[in-house]
Design goal:
alpha+beta; about 50% helix; 16 strands; 22 helices; elongated
């Protein structure tokens, strides 16, 4: 009599489908809400080129070309909008959730399903799933090659297929990012340790052969990779090892959108589950556990050992999000099984395990909320910057870009690239740049400068120093990590009006004030040059203000800063030294029309107290009238 075969349960397929739907929903939710930032702008503009030029561009970039080539095909099919360009990363990230299920299933069907739901909801994975860069593809390649290793080891009948998948996925990872060798190192350490423990030298030799085959597919790009690695200048900042480890773990658990002070609960919960999933012994899962542990720990360890640790490079560790989720899922499964044994409720294992995962996911919802809705954690808003500049655009306005890729992302939003100047990144010859800057200033009245970070692209401050000495800075505002400053070039300065100065306080003399007083339009910059001299070293740091407004009312425009854009504070002046302080006042769009006075003065920023002005022994008040303007 033939035995009746039990029908296979449809629950695993249902839960996997739900996990994939959740992954897609979270990755496509508000995917277009934020502007492309400057790295994404590089992706968007590079893939507009022919294939040959994409490869040439990647050869001069810090990334191999595979992602760009795939994005070019994707763009041809789905368009060049922000959501369309980012969708390739979203799909790669969702596919990684599928492999989290397949890899987790090595520990059991329930562990696979829990791992899929965890990775589907991890803020770190979702953040880079909504970015038009190669990191989601990097994580997918790592997931596929890891699955292939496990399939090869655990399913001998599929060894040839798994080996082929491993070779192709590893080669794809190498062609995607120069950090992929971190993955190969972790896989190799775990695989070699497992095979040596089983004395399977033949299998180890085959693994080495397949790895060499993958490197053979990468061979055409290898000379370029070696050259890029040799020329890759990395600033190795000092850091405390304990702080770095905590920061890495926090990033893996809650991403970059929740500060450490608010991440204690999810870090503790994930840590407890991780400890159980990693430590509890099980001979059948020894190799998968070792592989997950290596992929979780060794990429981060290499980042630290090689001196590459910095916040900008934590995205390389996206490859470690999947092993974290698998081990945490195993911990939840083991905890649920233990609880069922203690409670003697055999049918409760799945609900308890699911409840633990729901608790973990609930703990990271503040990070997801910040990712989607909190502007503090938004990407640099080049879309908003372009709109700010375009709102009061004039034909002779110039826009200066101080960091690489800013021109690319700006011209994604503004295709007319006339009067847009990408300045040389850390130039070898400042004399050449000086001539270029003078030529730009001679042909444009108003200039917008986009500084990145706190002089990240100009650590010596050369550009800002030059502009503070040669131009008239009127206004600046932070937009994310970008500082947008507005300058006037000061053309036609021979026609300016000059007046006699006055003495402020006991030791600061304003020798002369010059300005382009007269008619101003909304959006203009009033350039003013102040020539200061100290009759004795000032003992405090004062700020200089210029106010435009009625004599008996609040200013309608003003500029407050330390002298020479903050580069020459008053407590550093020497007796008899002349300080040429160039500054501008922004007449913002919407400023009421009318006739206004222009005043100058100094004040202590700590107390707000102004220095009194005097001339020839006569007190003039706490500010000096230097001119009048008419705003129309």
């Amino acid at each position: 009599m033939a035995m009746t075969q039990r029908p296979r349960s449809a629950l695993p397929a249902l839960f996997l489908s739900l996990a994939l739907l959740l992954a897609l929903a979270l990755r496509f939710y508000r995917i277009e809400a934020q502007s492309l930032w400057y790295d994404e702008g590089n992706s968007a503009r590079l893939v507009e080129r022919p294939v040959r030029l994409i490869i040439e561009g990647a050869a001069g970039d810090i990334h191999p070309p595979l992602y760009y080539l795939l994005l070019k095909l994707w763009r041809a099919a789905f368009g060049e909008g922000e959501a369309a360009l980012r969708a390739l990363s979203a799909v790669c990230s969702a596919l990684t959730v599928l492999f989290a299920y397949l890899i987790g299933r090595t520990f059991g069907q329930r562990t696979g399903g829990l791992a899929a739901f965890l990775l589907a909801s991890m803020p770190f994975a979702i953040y880079y799933a909504q970015e038009a860069r190669m990191y989601a593809l990097l994580a997918l390649c790592a997931a596929i090659s890891t699955w292939a290793i496990l399939a090869w080891c655990d399913r001998p009948e599929r060894a040839n297929l798994a080996a082929s998948v491993y070779v192709l996925a590893t080669a794809a990872g190498l062609w995607t990012h120069y950090a992929y060798p971190f993955v190969m190192f972790a896989q190799g350490v775990a695989f070699a340790a497992w095979l040596v423990s089983r004395r399977a030298r033949v299998a180890l030799a085959r693994y080495a052969a397949f790895t060499i085959a993958a490197l053979g597919l990468y061979l055409p790009w290898l000379p370029i990779a070696l050259r890029q690695a040799a020329n890759w200048g990395v600033e190795r900042a000092s850091h405390a090892l304990s702080d770095a480890v905590v920061e890495i773990y926090r990033t893996l658990v809650v991403g970059t959108t929740l500060p450490t002070a608010e991440a204690g609960l999810p870090m503790a919960l994930f840590g407890a589950a991780l400890g159980v999933g990693l430590i509890v012994p099980d001979r059948a899962s020894l190799h998968p556990r070792a592989l997950m542990a290596a992929l979780l720990a060794l990429p981060a360890a290499l980042l630290l050992v090689l001196g590459l640790y910095r916040e900008a490079y934590l995205k390389f560790l996206l490859v470690s999000a999947l092993p974290l989720c698998v081990l945490v899922a195993r911990g939840c499964d083991i905890t649920a099984t233990w609880a069922v044994q203690r409670l003697r409720r055999p049918g409760w294992a799945a609900p308890i395990a699911a409840g633990l995962v729901v608790l973990l996911l609930a703990s990271v919802t503040p990070s997801l909320n910040n990712l989607y809705h909190n502007p503090t954690y938004a990407r640099d808003d080049y879309r908003g910057i372009q709109r700010l500049i375009a709102a009061d655009h004039r034909p002779d306005d110039a826009v200066l870009f101080l960091a690489p890729n800013q021109w690319e992302v700006f011209t994604y939003y503004q295709r007319d690239d006339r009067n847009l100047y990408p300045l040389t990144y850390r130039p070898a010859s400042y004399q050449v740049i000086d001539r270029q800057m003078r030529a730009i200033a001679a042909t444009h009245s108003r200039l917008f400068a986009l500084y990145f970070g706190e002089r990240d692209a100009d650590p010596e401050g050369w550009y800002e120093t030059w502009m503070s000495e040669q131009l008239y800075k009127a206004h600046e505002r932070w937009v994310g990590n970008v500082r947008l400053a507005v300058y006037d070039s000061g053309r036609d300065s021979a026609a300016w009006t000059a007046i006699q100065g006055a003495t402020f306080g006991p030791a600061i003399v304003l020798r002369q004030a010059r300005g382009r007083f007269g008619l101003l339009r909304q959006g203009d910059v009033l350039p003013v040059e102040l020539i200061w001299e100290a009759t004795a070293p000032p003992m405090a740091r004062y700020k200089v203000f210029i106010h435009i407004g009625p004599a008996d009312g609040p200013p309608i425009a003003q500029h407050d800063s330390e002298p020479v854009a903050g580069y020459r504070p008053t407590d550093g002046w020497t007796t008899g030294e002349r300080i040429h302080d160039r500054r501008g006042v922004w007449i913002a769009p919407g400023t009421p029309a009318g006739d206004y006075d222009v005043f100058v003065g100094l004040y202590d920023p700590h107390t707000g107290a102004r220095l009194m002005a005097s001339r020839d022994g006569q007190t003039l008040g706490d500010r000096l009238l230097i001119g009048t303007v008419r705003v129309r």
